[in-house]
Amino acid sequence: GTGAASWAVLSHFPHVQHIHMVEHNKELSFLAQNLMQAGFPHIKPAITLESLATYTPDQSYDLVTLSYVMNELSPSKHMPLIQKMWAHCNQTFVVVEPGNPKGFQIIHSIREWARTQNISILAPCSHDGICPLYGKDWCHFTARFPRSTRLRQLKKGALGYEDEPFSYLILSKSHQTPVGARILYPPQKTPQGINLTLCQPQSPKIELITKKSHLYKKSKNKDWGDCWEG
């Protein structure tokens, strides 16, 4: 695409020295290269004009990301691509898909494969057991971004922002334990305090943080998708 995942990486890890992007559309790859050079002029990304389904890396990378890619491929190509990219990953592997039932289905299938391979799951899961949401709901979160005047006109929207739902999975080559529980839905304020729906192996758990609790102030600063270490 436009290289948005690479932008996100550089925003959090400015010390990154090398980025290799793969895109099969010539116009999009040209746009991605120009956007990257405008935003991060010190980075000269390598860009391969090829479909990920046929592309094979010629080296390994510390971080491998697949962002909004799997849903564009036929299901038969999903796991071969995941296995190929995992083989060329040194440390961390990130997959992001649209936060809808189809996107979550893809993420869940990758998670199940990871479980069979005893691969460490970093996020968003708080455990490596069977997903308690599968078949009942879909695990997803949202990212809010501002809408420009032009974008509001194109989408015929009145709000100055948009919430983009997404599902994701982060795997690691090293054995690591997930930190805390994951907040699965927006926290609900009640007269008694704040209800947090937390991920756990058996089923999502609703935990009430009362106003008298020493954790109440901490819970007020938590949002959907955050970790909870109460």
Description of the molecule:
- It is built from six helices and twelve strands.
- It is an alpha+beta fold and 230 residues long.
- Strands 3, 4, 5, 6 and 7 form a five-stranded mixed β-sheet that branches. A three-stranded antiparallel β-sheet has the order 9-10-11. Strands 1-2 form a two-stranded parallel sheet.
- The longest helix is centred in the middle third of the chain and has 16 residues, at 101-116.
- Helices cover 27% and strands 28% of the residues.
- The mean pLDDT is 92.
Primary descriptors:
230 residues; 12 strands; 5-stranded mixed sheet; alpha+beta
Uncertain regions spanning at least 5 consecutive residues: none
Give the N-terminus to C-terminus distance in angstroms.
39 Å
Proportion of strand residues: 25-35%
- Percent of residues in helices: 25-40%
What are the secondary-structure elements, in order, as H or E?
HEHEEHEHEEHEEEEEHE
Structural class based on helices, strands and sheet pairing: alpha+beta
Helix segment count?
6
**Rg from Cα:** 19 Å
Mean of residue pLDDT?
92
| Total count of strands | 12
Largest sheet: 5 strands, mixed
Assembly form of the protein: single chain
> Given the C-alpha coordinates, what overall shape results?
globular
